[in-house]
Amino acid sequence: xxxxxxxxxxxxxxxGKKMEAAGMQAHREALLSRASGRVLxxxxxxxxxxxxxxxxxxxTLAEPEEPMARRLERRLEEHPREVELVRAPAEELxxxxxxxxxxxxxxxxxTVDDQARALGELRRVLRPGGKLLFIEHxxxxxxxxxxxxxxxxxxxxxxxRCDCNRTTLDAIRAAGFTIDELERDELKKVPPFVRPLVxxxxxxx
Length: 205
Hints:
By secondary structure, this protein is α/β, with parallel strands linked by helices. Helix content is 37%, strand content 25%.
């Protein structure tokens, strides 16, 4: 368990507090109200999404980082619902094919080591016609900003532990999903090169 990982987990909620209040929390609440059935959330972090799932959801949370998982366990104690927590990366999900109705990724596909593999795993564990609900920041369509993202990506990986220039929508489609709904927005209270944001849903083929 690295010192960097412990520090990042300890400061994660504090670092994102202004961003959440400036619109991110509202996106979480609106999107996750649509989740139903058996739901898998990858990269669950400290559990920010938990309050926004309906009572009828059968929820499984996957979190690979031990410092985050420990904080997530403490948050789960505050919520009177049954939740399965597994310590697993998105690239190696320990579930059978077609096990879930819905998968959720909120600001996670920018962090995974192998985005294509993670999306392949999500598609595998979703039933035919299953849904991927996502909120992700990504590479800008505006060339000048995209070049700035490329220049700043190394620093962003150190500070925020994620890539700010991934073409995530292309990756979702390449994994065999069909994007059904898409809203474009900006993250607030963050540097401009991290702001391009998409909120949407995709369906397995």
